[in-house]
Amino acid sequence: MDMHTVVVGTSGTTADDVVAVAREGARVEISAEARTALAAARSIVDTLAATPEPVYGVSTGFGALASRHIGPEMRARLQRNIVRSHAAGIGPHVEREVVRALMFLRLKTVCSGHTGVRPEVADSMAALLNAGITPVVHEYGSLGCSGDLAPLSHCALALMGEGEAEGPDGRLRPAAELLAEHGITPVELREKEGLALLNGTDGMLGMLVLALADLQLLYTSADITAALSLEALLGTDRVLAPELHAVRPHPGQAAAAANMSAVLKGSGLTGHFQQDEAPRVQDAYSVRCAPQVAGAGRDTVAHARLVADRELAAAVDNPVVLHDGRVESNGNFHGAPVAYALDFLAIAAADLASIAERRTDRLLDKNRSHGLPPFLAENPGVDSGLMIAQYTQAALVSEMKRLAVPASADSIPSSAMQEDHVSMGWSAARKLRTAVDALGRVLAIELYAATRGVELRRGLTPAPASRAAVDALRAAGVEGPGPDRFLAPELEAAEVFVRDGRLVAAVERVTGPLA
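== Histidine ammonia-lyase ==
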């Protein structure tokens, strides 16, 4: 576990903190300010619990059963029961980083002082994260309204010492054993605490934050692969001139064009587009419009980041404890703001993959590649070259188009029609994770084809940044042009090369920082 420490206070958290805890194993500490806020909010709940008037979540049932008043002698059981009954997920286990993100984000809301949870419960939540104990959360179970109920319930179940969890060694074991091994006492829930541990957008928000971190890298990578394809196709870089993008002032478009221009600086391959037997007046859209498409996606990422930042500053719970002593029901757990952003990103990712695939196909087609051999093969006919690599890319893009269908446009009523409009934000987040993985693979295949195309332009000198990308890819075990060979391992190596940031790092050593 990384010894970096993230301090949780009352004013929310940052995306960087989420990534540090989820992916890097950063330790979590609760600030003194948060402890004061926790105690103050708990005092309000305890006062209300002692009154005869019913208060939702404190002395009533839940959802469609909220009309039933629950006496003091049954309230601990009530809170245990909501966790047990709501831990009703099914299907494959969700990734460790996602579970850690949603646990941390729930702790963030608990520490806001708006939930009424006791400080010792928050301490146990932090202890679970710091011990590297990851509760089993299942793929299916959340409608994204009353938050991510089933996923968060599985996490709360582990806090109670029930259910299964993954230890720091990756083995699944009973949660009670893991807690005992790390000196963590199972939590005995009191009024409102069970509900407060379940009622948030933490799963979908955690996946949004993680996707944004991945997409930031992939959009920069896409500008590099587009530049390499432009070079391999002997295209013109004149369309990247900043004055052309200034007349259509979308910031993402300008950033993408600037990235491509930086990669292509000093290229001996660009500018040959009018020297063919049939001179081109303009490059094809997939080349010429690369900054416009990637730029629109960058602006979508910026919008989604704004939504995420707002949600990271929020305290999502129902009912919410207000500083004036009221405990009020509300609808802040509805996942619509996050769900829309997740769906929007899936659309942008699919379009970026689609244009990258079109460039790859152009590189492989002798009728459109301006002098490259068919399928970039060494001996076409005997060798098939990258023919089927493009099939793989097309299959990925087709799946991404299906994943771009919005989940948030759907709603299935639940809880006896009390919860009659839901966000499906968890589903939007799950399909976005699949789409982001697919995008990395699509860009890796474009990189594979474009670098081969650049190297096949013998006698012409690529840009220094392009040369750096090619050399780094070859050093990573991805070979250049040659006879047919087993491609799958090289495509996988290219994917890892893109996803771990080595492509961007290799290019930035020449260009300086890219956007």
